[in-house]
Amino acid sequence: MKRFFSILLSLTMLLGMAGCSGARATEPVNKAFVIGFSQVGSESDWRVANTKSMTSAFENDPEYDLVMENARQEQENQFTAVRKFILEGVDFIIIAPTVEEGWETVLTEIKDAGIPVIIMDRSVAVEDDSLYLTNIGSDFLRQGKLAVEWLNGEIPSDKQAKILHLQGTIGATAQIQRTKALEDAVATHSNWEITSQLYGDFTEAKAYEVMTEYLKTNKDINVLYSENDNMTFGAMRALDEAGITYGNGGQVKIITFDATKEALQYCHDGRIDLCVECNPLFGTTVKDLIKKYRNGETIPKHVYVDETAYTTKEITQEFVNSREY
Ligand code: GZL
Q1: Ligand 1 shell residues, CB under 6 Å
Q2: Average pLDDT for residues 22-37, to the nearest whole number?
Q3: Domain match, 119 and 188 both
Q4: Nearest CA to ligand 1 atom 6
Q5: Which of 258, 279, 286, 306 to mutate to test the pocket of ligand 1 (most atoms within 8 A of CB)?
Q6: Ligand 1: which residue has its CA nearest to atom 1?
Q7: Do 187 and 318 belong together in one domain?
Q8: What percent of the chain has pLDDT over 70?
Q9: Count of domains observed in the chain
Q10: What CATH number is associated with residue 287?
Q11: How far is residue 287's CA from residue 132's CA, in Å, rounded to a whole number?
Q12: Measured in angstroms, how far is the CA atom of residue 112 from the centroid of ligand 1?
């Protein structure tokens, strides 16, 4: 009987001690910092590289647990994922928004739950920017301006620029800003015209489909302004099948955004004229921002990643081989 009470007493003390340490008996003492991450999808090589950059920044760090949900390019799936994160009581939320509009309600729900949130890659169109800690991503308008400045040097003022415009996901910051740069430039160049704006949704398959259809009845273009590499690859297939040349010495000058390894190889080989870089590799930067937040440091409202543009003149094979994505 004595033994029974001594076991009971030590069990009670053990449970009591767990209570004193503040950690419930069921919770591990060194609980990881759980981050819910809602990613756009896997629509492009850029996105795959961005996801890899994010997951590798956290995967071997026991202090963090990154839980990623792939929205398959649907904003509704992002809302569902974020509400799941809130119910699960995550410590932090990261959102790569599919499109800019429609985020007020769910960001307010996150704020009401007391969970900090970082917006990454694209942006959200909300009045109250206290709904998120910071927005880390590219300056997409600057990317577009790099492209039109290059084109301005390529098309003499006495020649016509007949520009076919392949647009990414409508409403995504990358699409809005890259489109704005082109449309603003066309408005100030009387010898430039956009022959058509085709919806390619940032995917190779969709771009191939709409380009093939367009080229059946329209072949009079001399510039392709394509808002990401995967759409460009689809367009190149369609141009090949329509017997239209492109790149160095071709009928059509090709401008593409992202500057993935495959696009840079085409650029080096003279098949693409301009690759505008869009850097997806900011997983460690996001992690540093979270560390700063946890240390009580202030973080800027917008963090831009460094980017440039490349033509065949600047690209060596060594450079292409050295690229991480
Ligand atoms: C840009 C990113 C865009 C890429 C596309 O930061 O949002 O989405 O340019 C991707 O490749 O699909």
Answers
A1: 43-44, 46-47, 121-122, 137-138, 172, 174, 202, 228, 257-258, 278
A2: 70
A3: no
A4: 121
A5: 258
A6: 174
A7: yes
A8: 91
A9: 2
A10: 3.40.50.2300
A11: 16
A12: 30
| Residues 96 and 74: beta-carbon distance below 8 Å | no
Alpha helices in 155-269 (DSSP H): 173-187, 204-217, 229-241, 261-268
Is residue 297 pLDDT above 50, yes or no?
Answer: yes
Predicted pLDDT at 26: 52
CA of 314 to the centre of ligand 1 (A): 23
The label of the residue with tokens 């007020």 reads 104
Residue 70's SS3 state is strand
DSSP structure class, residue 131: G
In a domain, 201, yes or no: yes
CB atoms within 10 A of CB 292: 14
Question: What band does 31 get if pLDDT is binned at 50, 70 and 90?
Answer: confident
| Structure confidence by residue, pLDDT tens digits, 189-247 | 999 999 999 999 999 999 999 999 999 999 999 999 999 999 999 999 999 999 999 99
Cα–Cα distance, 280 to 190 (Å, whole number)? 35
